[in-house]
Amino acid sequence: MRYMLMMHAPHATGDYQHDTWAPGEFEAHMAFMHRLNQALTDAGEMVGVEALAAPGEAKLVRAGKHGVPAVTDGPFPEAKEFLAGYWIVDVEKPERAWEIAATASSAPGPGGVPLNMPLEVRRVMAIRPPDV
């Protein structure tokens, strides 16, 4: 079964806050993430992983008049958190997806203290095209 693990970060200024971390802390955080990604790849569980640009770069798009895109700034200013990145994993049981999410949540932050970031875990639905 495939699961999407969505990492949420606290909303503040619309930018990531890692630029306020002490030297080396962001590098330690990224090294942790690279080790996790390699372990998932080695276990054959990794389907995909992507980090997202800061929400300050996000645009909200709707269909406008005559289907022309209507684009506005920012994701959702009232949001308390924003999506920072995600993994798609292929595992046998939901419990394994939860274990991976808990590991990712424990990534180090300032002072090496685990961030305990919330990760939303959702099963990816298999959509089959209609028979032709």
CATH superfamily: Dimeric alpha+beta barrel
CATH topology: Alpha-Beta Plaits
The major beta sheet can be summarized as:
4 strands, antiparallel
- Helix segment tally: 2
**Distance N to C terminus:** 26 Å
Uncertain regions spanning at least 5 consecutive residues? none
The tally of beta strands, per DSSP, is: 6
Count of distinct structural domains: 1
What is the average of the pLDDT values?
A: 87
Q: How helical, in percent, are the residues?
A: 10-25%
Element string (H = helix, E = strand):
EHEEEEHE
- Side by side, the strands of the main sheet go 2-5-1-6
Give the CA-based shape.
Answer: flat
CATH class: Alpha Beta
**CA-based gyration radius:** 17 Å
Provide the CATH architecture.
2-Layer Sandwich
Structural class: alpha+beta
What fraction of the residues are assigned to beta strands by DSSP? 25-35%
Description:
The chain is α+β, with helices and mostly antiparallel strands and 132 residues long. The chain is 23% helix and 30% strand. A hairpin with a 5-residue loop joins strand 3 (59-63) and strand 4 (69-73).
How is this fold's topology laid out?
Elements: E1 2-10, H1 25-42, E2 46-51, E3 59-63, E4 69-73, E5 81-90, H2 94-105, E6 119-123
Antiparallel strand pairs: 1-5, 1-6, 2-5, 3-4
